[in-house]
Amino acid sequence: MTAFSTTVDLGTMVSLCKRRGFIFQSSEIYGGLASTWDYGPLGVELKNNVKNAWWKAMVWGRADMVGLDAAILMHTDVWKASGHAERFNDPLVECKECHSRFRADELDEQICSNCGGELSEPREFNQMLQTRLGPVQDDTSLTYLRPETAQGIFVNFGNVLTATRRKLPFGIAQIGKSFRNEITTGSFTFRTREFEIMELEYFVRPGEDEGWHERWVKDCMAWYTGLGMNPEHLQLRDHDPKELAHYAKATTDIEYQFPWGWGEMQGIANRTDFDLKAHSEASGESLTFFDDDAKEHITPYVIEPSAGVDRTVLAFLVDAYTEEETISANGKEETRVLLKLHPELAPIKVAILPLSRNEKLAPLAKKIHQSVQSSGVMGGLVQYDDAQSIGRRYRRQDEVGTPLCVTVDFDSLDDDAVTIRDRDTMAQERVNIDDLVDELKKRLIG
Ligand code: ATP
Question: Which one-letter DSSP state was computed for residue 134?
Answer without folding.
Answer: S
